[in-house]
Design goal:
By secondary structure, the protein is an alpha/beta fold. It contains 18 helices and 20 strands. Helix content is 43%, strand content 19%. α3 packs across α7 and α10 crosses α11. It starts with 5 loop residues before the first helix and ends in a 7-residue tail after the last helix.
């Protein structure tokens, strides 16, 4: 099955929010598997961003005025369209990223789950909430969630559908407009997701996609938005956080990871070894929450390593638009170069290749074998730095305590995986790990799919959370409304001031005897 026809990409390009002079510069987007052109997209400018924000602000006022239940209905229709057009979306994602089809399906499923979750909980979480007033009888207090305004989303290339549209769904549910900058390598995935949003009834001006370079389009979004959502490297996240701080606007980001897996004696090694293939090599390792370090208790290290190597060697590495492939391609020359350099550096300093270890140009221009190393040290490039590719290192350890210590010995803290003799042991180990999410007897997918729980990073792995109530309410400003009844704090006009002030003190001291105070 080939990539979609050129007409499909031409249709998607027309959805980009761009003013269209005759000399508009365009960028060619290529099929990652082959390097052949898919189509062209217009390259946005600061003027395009300003145009998008102008329209978005007008549309946002109307959207925020609609009842939350009506906004939720749009998301429910969107979820149904995702199911109906799932194969088309997977085709587009695969064409742009080169990932295996099951990894492309992860994006569609995650988008479906997000749409359903926020449509379900949104009206309740966004409704006015009663809270205790400062003084019984005198005050009545409530808190409501007001939308930020226009949210900027700067999306990455590795999961270009769910990390652009998926991060926009809660912002839209909260009553905001959204302006998205997709990564320059993967604009079609975002545009395909946007097309279905429009079909679901979302006003076009409310969700704008502006392709273009980060230095121009991304900077313009940061300078204009009321809140920024970013997914990408920790280095870029620092820069964007500083820019948002200068403007005193909110910022949320999922950043890099050097994620650990712990395998203890007594764990089911067959299941752990099989799951480790997905854990380490989903999207060819180009996943913030994928595993790059495996700590195995020494008593079972040899047995686990043998099983893991066998599973990796048996994995299908190829370019197909069906589910016959386990691992797909890297996305760019720069990613291929990074992986190649990390492997070459490690082996030159004494690391041993247990599986993989070389590029596969016979399969396509950007393929690299899933690679397992042993003997990796901190002096090697891949020791402490994120590779973001199909490379993992195995470390035998003498105890669970040592595994936990080494797992936590990192500036990152995004995701972790634990495989122990039983669930209770696994949960106890998980609680000791400094990571935003920890999967017991899984790699990452169960945590990602749990949309009711917050997901994000500790350390330099992120700021804020996506998913859960936090993932919705971060796109709002809480507003407290307190109504004063009977008398205000000036007191009754006939009561002397000194008497009134003594009464206030007695009332304040007596509050501790009331329920819930």
């Amino acid at each position: 099955m080939p990539a979609p026809e050129a007409e499909v990409f031409e249709r998607l390009s027309a959805l980009a929010v761009i003013e269209a002079p005759a000399d508009r510069r365009k960028k060619t987007i290529v099929e990652t598997f082959t390097g052949k052109p898919l189509g062209t997209v217009p390259v946005g400018t600061k003027a395009d961003v300003a145009h998008a924000f102008e329209k978005a602000r007008a549309a946002q006022e109307r959207w925020a005025a609609q009842p939350a239940a009506e906004r939720a209905a749009v998301l429910e229709r969107y979820r149904a369209l995702l199911v109906e057009h799932r194969d088309f979306l997977m085709d587009v994602v695969q064409a742009e990223t080169g990932k295996a089809r099951w990894a492309a399906q992860e994006e569609v499923v995650a988008l479906m789950l997000a749409a359903r979750y926020f449509a379900k909980v949104g009206p309740r979480l966004l409704g006015s909430q009663r809270v205790q007033g400062g003084f019984p009888l005198i005050t009545r207090a409530s808190v409501s969630a007001q939308p930020k305004g226009v949210v900027g989303v700067i999306a990455p290339w590795n999961y270009p559908l769910v990390l652009s549209v998926g991060d926009s769904i809660p912002a839209l549910m909260a009553g905001n407009a959204v302006v998205v900058k997709p990564d320059s390598q993967t604009p079609y995935s975002t545009l395909a997701g946007a097309e279905l949003l429009y079909r679901a009834g979302l006003p076009r001006d409310l969700f704008a996609v502006v392709p273009g370079p980060g230095a121009e389009v991304g900077t313009a979004i940061v300078e204009a938005c009321d809140y920024l959502m970013f997914t990408g490297s920790s280095a870029t996240g620092r820069t964007l956080a500083q820019q948002c701080g200068q403007r005193l606007i909110g910022f949320s980001a999922e950043l890099g990871g050097k994620n650990p897996m712990i395998v203890t004696k007594g764990a089911n090694l067959d299941k752990a070894a099989k799951a480790a293939v997905r854990a380490c090599f989903s999207n060819a390792g180009q996943l913030c929450i994928s595993i790059e370090r495996i700590y195995v208790e020494r008593e079972v290290a040899a047995a686990f390593t043998e099983k893991f190597v066998a599973e990796v060697n048996a994995a299908a590495l190829s370019a197909t638009y069906d589910f016959s492939t386990d691992i797909g391609s890297l996305i760019s020359e720069s990613q291929l170069e990074t992986v190649s350099k990390h492997v070459a550096d490690a082996t030159s300093k004494g690391a041993k290749v247990l599986a993989g270890g070389k590029a596969r140009p016979d399969l396509g221009p950007l393929f690299y074998e899933p690679t397992i190393l042993s003997g990796v040290t901190d002096e090697m490039e891949c020791g402490r730095n994120e590779t973001f590719g199909p490379l993992v290192s195995i470390y035998p350890v003498d105890s669970v305590g040592e595994a936990v210590r080494l797992a936590n010995d990192s500036d990152y803290g995004l995701n972790a995986s634990v495989w122990a003799a039983n669930k209770s042991d696994g949960e106890r180990i998980a609680a000791r790990l400094q990571a935003g999410t920890v999967c017991v007897d899984e790699a990452y997918a169960t945590a990602w799919a749990t949309t009711g729980a917050p997901m994000g990073g500790m350390g330099i792995s992120g700021v804020g959370r996506r998913h859960g109530p936090d993932g919705l309410l971060k796109f709002t400003e809480p507003q407290s409304i307190v109504v004063t009844r009977l008398t205000n704090l000036d007191g009754p006009t006939l009561l002397p001031k000194h008497v009134w002030q003594r009464l206030i003190m007695r009332l304040a001291r007596g509050l501790r005897f009331l329920p819930g105070r």
